[in-house]
Specification:
- This protein is mainly α.
- The chain has 2 helices and no strands.
- The protein has helices spanning 22-51, 58-98.
- Helix 1 (22-51) packs antiparallel against helix 2 (58-98).
Length: 115
C-alpha cells in the first residue's frame, strides 16, 4: 500500500490529478445563478411593496408600484439574459466534453455506436 506525501494510505503519488468536469461546473453555476435570480426577484417585490406602503394618496402609491414594477422587470430581463448566456456556455462545455478523444475513431467511445 502506497502512502503519499500527506500520509494518506492508498494514495498513488504517480496518479494524475482528477480531471475537472468543466461542464458540470458550468451547469452548477447556472443553477446557482437561477437561485440568486429568484432571491433577487423576491427582494425586488418586497421593495415594491415597501415603497408603495405608508401614508400616501392612492395615485402616488400606484405610481410608486408602477415604477417599482418597471425597474424590477428590467432587472429580471437582465437576469434572464445572463442566465441564457451562462446556459449557452455550459452547453458548449457539455458538447466539448462529449466530443470523441483525439486519435480515437468516431463511434468507438461507447458500446453499440456505429460510425
Amino acid at each position: 500500500m502506497a502512502i503519499d506525501q500527506m500520509g494518506v494510505p492508498g494514495a498513488d503519488p504517480n496518479r494524475p490529478e482528477p480531471r475537472r468536469n468543466e461542464a458540470a461546473d458550468a451547469w452548477m453555476a447556472v443553477a446557482t445563478e437561477m437561485m440568486d435570480c429568484s432571491m433577487r426577484a423576491m427582494a425586488r417585490s418586497m421593495e415594491i411593496m415597501t415603497a408603495a406602503s405608508g401614508p400616501m394618496p392612492m395615485d402616488q402609491r400606484l405610481e410608486a408600484q408602477r415604477k417599482g414594477m418597471l425597474t424590477a422587470f428590467d432587472a429580471g430581463v437582465k437576469d434572464i439574459q445572463k442566465l441564457w448566456t451562462m446556459a449557452a456556455d455550459a452547453a458548449g462545455a457539455s458538447v466539448k466534453l462529449a466530443a470523441p478523444a483525439q486519435g480515437r475513431p468516431p463511434g468507438s467511445a461507447g458500446a453499440g455506436l456505429s460510425s
